[in-house]
């Protein structure tokens, strides 16, 4: 078993992160496996070296350990480019120039009953989608979307993944998604961003495969996005790990903790004299 905790160094580590990291490490240790730390610093406009230093310090303080050097996304941009090239050559990507506002306006008269948002935000109305796949070299510094219908048409077997935790509605076991659901509920997701290169969905799939991750243990908020990851794994001939989506740590109002929720920062609890055992108890471990 190989698992990972993959924080983005864009803010303080809070209770929600601590729970996710501790759970992944506990489960992996119990199985005699290897727990890895990965720094998801793809978004260089928000990632800060200070946050990376702080989060490693907090994780060590919590009693976690991992082999060093750990993978940092910003050092592997060529691997994401190669994956994008491959999808481009398969005719599955197209450039998109829509702003968020363009998309909202195009969606302002939605088809009755069609959901407006999916795991990747607003479901793209297809404004820039070409009738035939673009040819020639892959354009750089543009937003690229995955043509979901074309991508699903490449599948030779139904899309599935194994869930050992649970999704938001208690989904567990073998999770499957039909092509129609992928097109209707997810749509043409962004796989490359103008300012960032690869998108999270593309990078996470490449990273997990490069690190030979067998078990992805992460928050339930990412359950719906997992179908996107399973699809990209199929398209890129990468293995699909086992997924374990865990409950989310909420504040006293029942709201999910956000990155900027500094009130629950581990560093703050540390400065107040709390122990790692007390943090474990606070998150129910
Ligand atoms: N950096 C991502 C996050 O913090 C990782 C998500 C994942 O585990 O796939 O949400």
Write a structural description.
With 285 residues, the protein is α/β, with parallel strands linked by helices. It has 2 domains: 1-73 and 250-285, Rossmann fold, CATH 3.40.50; 76-246, Rossmann fold (3-Layer(aba) Sandwich). The chain contains 10 helices and 13 strands. It has helices at 15-30, 49-61, 77-89, 100-106, 148-153, 179-186, 200-210, 226-235, 266-271, 276-282; strands spanning 2-5, 34-39, 71-72, 93-96, 117-118, 121-122, 143-146, 159-163, 173-177, 190-193, 197-198, 215-219, 242-246. The strands form 5 sheets. A 4-stranded antiparallel β-sheet has the order 4-7-10-11. Helix 7 packs across helix 8 (226-235). The longest helix has 16 residues, at 15-30. The structure holds glutamic acid. Residues 6-8, 40, 204, 218, 222 line the site of glutamic acid. Glutamic acid binds at residues 6-8, 40, 204, 218, 222.
**What summary fits the major beta sheet?**
4 strands, antiparallel
Number of strands: 13
What percent of residues are in strands? 15-25%
Task: Report the end-to-end length measured between terminal Cα atoms.
Answer: 21 Å
What name does the CATH topology of the largest domain carry? Rossmann fold
Strand order of the largest sheet: 4-7-10-11
Order of H and E elements: EHEHEHEHEEEHEEHEEHEHEHH
Could you name the CATH class of the largest domain?
A: Alpha Beta
Determine the fraction of residues in helical runs and give it as a percent range.
25-40%
Low-confidence stretches: none
- How many DSSP H or I helices? 10
Sum up the overall morphology in one term: globular
Q: In the CATH hierarchy, what is the architecture of the largest domain at level 2?
A: 3-Layer(aba) Sandwich
Structural class: alpha/beta
């Amino acid at each position: 078993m190989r698992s990972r905790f993959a924080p983005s160094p864009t803010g303080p580590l809070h209770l929600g992160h601590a729970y996710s990291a501790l759970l992944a490490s506990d489960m992996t240790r119990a199985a005699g496996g290897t727990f890895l730390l990965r720094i998801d610093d793809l978004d260089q406009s928000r990632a800060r070296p200070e946050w990376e230093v702080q989060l490693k310090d907090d994780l060590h303080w919590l009693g976690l350990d991992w082999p060093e050097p750990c993978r940092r996304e910003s050092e592997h941009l060529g691997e994401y480019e190669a994956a994008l090239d491959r999808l481009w050559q398969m005719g599955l990507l197209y450039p998109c120039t829509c702003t968020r506002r363009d998309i909202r306006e195009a969606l302002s008269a939605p088809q009755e009953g069609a959901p407006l948002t999916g795991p990747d935000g607003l479901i793209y109305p297809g404004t820039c989608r070409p009738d035939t796949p673009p040819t020639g070299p892959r354009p750089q510094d543009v937003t690229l979307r995955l043509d979901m219908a074309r991508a699903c048409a490449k599948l030779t077997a139904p899309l599935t993944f194994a869930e050992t935790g649970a999704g938001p509605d208690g989904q567990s076991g073998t999770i499957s998604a039909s092509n129609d659901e992928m097109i209707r509920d997810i749509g043409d997701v962004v796989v490359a961003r103008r300012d960032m290169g690869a998108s999270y969905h593309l990078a996470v799939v490449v990273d997990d495969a490069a690190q030979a991750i067998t078990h992805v243990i992460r928050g339930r908020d990412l359950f719906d996005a997992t179908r996107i990851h399973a699809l990209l794994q199929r398209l890129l001939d990468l293995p699909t790990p086992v997924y374990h989506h865990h409950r989310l740590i909420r504040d006293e109002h029942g709201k999910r903790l956000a990155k900027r929720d500094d009130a629950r920062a581990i560093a703050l609890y540390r400065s107040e004299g709390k122990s790692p055992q007390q943090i474990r108890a606070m998150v129910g471990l």
